[in-house]
Design a protein that fits this description.
The protein is an all-beta fold. The protein contains no helices and 11 strands. The protein is globular, with a radius of gyration of 13 Å. The N and C termini lie far apart (37 Å).
């Protein structure tokens, strides 16, 4: 079982970002998926999630309006797309899975409620 987030790097302020979270060893679309980020010196923050296999995406207040997450089930991949990137978006971005989730709502779930985490990908927003 593996989750791999990728697509990070140096991005210009005002530009857009697209990250991928690819799962291997299990079918991602049966489970709840969360996107998180951890800025230097700060706690890990949930920014977007799907609570169940067929749920709509939920978003954290800090990124609402700029963030879209989506699933590509045949590719076993979840995407994160954020526009108008700001220096305060600099962070390591992670994806995590909640196996067989039956959650009603996910954006306020605690980190420990997720079963498995992928390696993060660093995003640096700077000119």
């Amino acid at each position: 079982v593996q989750l791999q987030a990728s697509g990070g790097g140096l991005v210009q302020p005002g530009s857009s970002l697209r990250l991928s979270c690819v799962a291997s060893g299990f079918p991602m679309h049966y489970h709840g998926i969360g996107w998180f980020r951890q800025a230097p010196g700060k706690d890990r923050e949930g920014i977007g999630c799907f609570s169940t296999a067929d749920a709509s995406a939920e978003y954290g207040d800090s990124v609402k309006g700029r963030l879209t997450i989506s699933r590509d089930n045949p590719k076993n991949t979840v995407y994160l797309e954020m526009n108008d990137m700001k220096p305060e978006d600099t962070a390591v971005y992670f994806c995590a899975v909640k196996y067989g989730s039956r959650w009603s709502g996910c954006i306020n779930r605690q980190l420990l409620e997720y079963d498995f985490w992928g390696q993060g990908t660093l995003v640096t927003v700077s000119s």
